[in-house]
């Protein structure tokens, strides 16, 4: 049984999606809803043993599966998770469950297609996190564009077509260059597509730099890093709530994960050489995008920019080259960055869900259209408060531990990096809380707010589950960090080695 | 000279097809218009029996017949299999379309069969003259087929354009062949190759001939800058005929290119004193093909963006696909040929499904040849909207559809050459191998442009509201076969290993590469 857990985590949601598509069409929306909830729940349950059965002391790949797929090119169906990726498989299956619940009443058109798209995407994302073969990874990485494109385009806002095209083409641009990089590495490693073999290659600085450029396009677009971030606000604003939740919580993480899995171990010398570029871009994201978030009038756009800013913190943590010769990654920064990724997965999903709850009632995302929501929706306001605090990194919430670790690591490397990075705590608090104040507090703004009803049982359930995870991760981060510790050290050792040809 | 000494047995599929075509021509005379289904059924049966003979006569090696004029090798066998499937699909999808437009006549079937015969000869001929005869048999049948709707001004115009430009291309090809004949003194592919290998051919004359041959081939493939006929013919021709032109002949053309360039002229322009040390030198036609391929990728993809007619969009997309096909061929080794073969083979299936979808939506008095005809298809028929989605994403090269693996194999072949033979100098070759990496980069960037116009059709189908609400009126057989065709694109994408291995093996066993 344990031998096929990852396959199960990938194919069960895809299968569930196809079943929902087959039986839930037409007027049978309720069948589609319950069927997909069941599918999502089952898919989440099969990922639990990945956590309980995980060997904390093993830094290598676990739950490994290896079958030949395309023998002509030596491409294998090769799966495995280490302490880093296992979290994202769990996070993704969890988020999908939340998304199905979030869209329960909101989506009335083509329910089966909507839910099936999310289930299939969930499987594909699990595949991307678990793939240990470059082409397999690429297939999952790119195939997930199709459901997301449909989700934004069919159920999105007024400008959905523009947003869906921009999303698709932007992301495709990056991944196509990576495909060339993968094939190049394939020949360098004597005809293997295994990611582990790529990491063992000795490449010249020029080769590494070009590879890094290719990886940058694929993963920086996905993260998204400044200056290739412009698709994200558009996609978020137009996407339905569930789409935004998955985008922010999961697919952005996939970009950051790509840096960890591909760019850093395969091209460590180039990464060291150009770490300053990444640090610069990350700091610009943190500071400048933080300021941009401050002036947004659209709540969703604000949270979208806040996502970019938070992800800037993640990439900052990945490129903190410390140590004696500035060739070693700072373990605090890396662990902090990964913790930040997981935390942001929960928090951003929660934030987008909260906005979705209000949007469903008022049909506006403009901050100016609200005011005094707390008077009408006290329970909701309390939950929203918690998530807003987590988004601004309040100690005790999940947002704090990651940011704190990254700043600690940055201080060790360069004091000024830490100072610039730490401004996120100010900006984050400023834009989040200011938005919160304008929307939730004060007198009842208009008749729309006057008519608001507090959250129903379904919404309460989603909010409560997310609140528990956010608090749990903030109060007891050890649970999360322990699992990744060995794998992160392994990665740091890999990156500290020079891969230049001797 | 007897039947046995001619070794005519290996040409049984062609011989049977010829007899069947003549028989159907005769039988159809006695079939009334109402019973045209008999001709339809007989034609499909003839194709099936030809396929069965082909299958039973499969020999995993190279065998020649008719005094070295005709060859049966695994590559030809696979190509013929693909051609038969492509032709059959065109006839099946086109039946009701043809019936609604006064094209449902015997000529449609007999001309198609003769075109098929021409294609099969193109894949198996190893004599310049026979290659040319095969090509003309195909072309002349196609000219007539395009003009089959005599009263349609568009179709007649397309036929005229196709004929004039096609004749020009044939002329060029023939001129090139005659120069190669002048340089080597032979029309036989094997002897020409030997003459070039022993340096017994006049190199100047050879290169001149080569240029004309490449130009002629580029015309037939529809590669830029010889692509002008493609959009007009695709748009003007009745859709089943456009499908016929756009699918099976691409495979035949691939085999044709193999015979002419890889087998006969594979060593043209290579400094043979270097070849022992550098077994991966590129022949002089490689750089010509590179120019054609890059130009096709750029122009094809960019021009497709501006189209509102889906057949015209397919035409420009074909041009870009032919660019990809040429990329594999220009690598000039077995890896590249196998990649291009896989590309051509899967392209036939993909394009057939695309055209099938256009015909599915067409009905009497309504041509679904604009992109807007696909508006809101997801509401009218969710199933076929998903099928078309698969076709489009396969064409765009998005995994896990088969189009992705076709592109992957070509890129792989390109980089294989670039990485294993980094920078050749002093060999007198005007092509820098590391340049192939950049060609690969151009190719993927152009696929990005390509993704845009395929996405636009997906957008129209899924994001827009339907304007045409008529139910889809296709027969059950078309529905089932079209669905299978589309699902095959997904299935081949999930398990591409088998076909890739088989086609690669076929190329290897056919010993197309001399060194």
Automatic annotation (TrEMBL), chain A:
Annotated InterPro entries: NADH_Q_OxRdtase_chainM/4, NADH_UbQ_OxRdtase, ND/Mrp_TM
Annotated membrane topology: Multi-pass membrane protein
Signal peptide: none
Transmembrane segment boundaries: 6-24, 31-51, 84-104, 111-129, 135-155, 167-187, 210-232, 244-262, 274-295, 302-321, 341-359, 379-395, 415-436, 457-476
Example of a GO MF term: NADH dehydrogenase (ubiquinone) activity
One GO biological process term: ATP synthesis coupled electron transport
Record key words, sorted: Membrane, Transmembrane, Transmembrane helix
Cellular localisation: Endomembrane system; Membrane
Domain annotation NADH:quinone oxidoreductase/Mrp antiporter transmembrane: ranges: 131-421
Chief location of this protein within or outside the cell: membrane
Pfam family, one: Proton_antipo_M
Protein name, entry field: NADH-quinone oxidoreductase subunit M
Lineage of the species this protein comes from: Bacteria, Pseudomonadati, Pseudomonadota, Betaproteobacteria, Neisseriales
From TrEMBL, chain B:
E.C. no: 7.1.1.-
Pfam families, A to Z: Proton_antipo_M
Domain of life, source organism: Bacteria
Residue ranges annotated for the NADH:quinone oxidoreductase/Mrp antiporter transmembrane domain, each copy included: 126-418
Keyword annotations of the record: Cell membrane, Membrane, NAD, Quinone, Translocase, Transmembrane, Transmembrane helix, Transport, Ubiquinone
Molecular function terms from GO: NADH dehydrogenase (quinone) (non-electrogenic) activity; NADH dehydrogenase (ubiquinone) activity; quinone binding
Major location (coarse): membrane
Catalytic activity line of the entry: a quinone + NADH + 5 H(+)(in) = a quinol + NAD(+) + 4 H(+)(out)
Enzyme class: translocase
Membrane-crossing segments per the record: 12-31, 38-55, 75-94, 160-184, 204-230, 282-306, 313-332, 344-362, 383-406, 435-455, 476-501
GO CC, alphabetical: endomembrane system; plasma membrane
Keyword Ribonucleoprotein: no
Compartments (UniProt record): Cell membrane; Endomembrane system; Membrane
Swiss-Prot/TrEMBL GO biological process terms: ATP synthesis coupled electron transport
Entry membrane topology: Multi-pass membrane protein
Role: NDH-1 shuttles electrons from NADH, via FMN and iron-sulfur (Fe-S) centers, to quinones in the respiratory chain. The immediate electron acceptor for the enzyme in this species is believed to be ubiquinone. Couples the redox reaction to proton translocation (for every two electrons transferred, four hydrogen ions are translocated across the cytoplasmic membrane), and thus conserves the redox energy in a proton gradient.
Family: Belongs to the complex I subunit 2 family.
Subunit structure: NDH-1 is composed of 14 different subunits. Subunits NuoA, H, J, K, L, M, N constitute the membrane sector of the complex.
Protein name: NADH-quinone oxidoreductase subunit N
Species for this entry: Andreprevotia lacus DSM 23236
Classification lineage: Bacteria, Pseudomonadati, Pseudomonadota, Betaproteobacteria, Neisseriales
Designated gene of the protein: nuoN
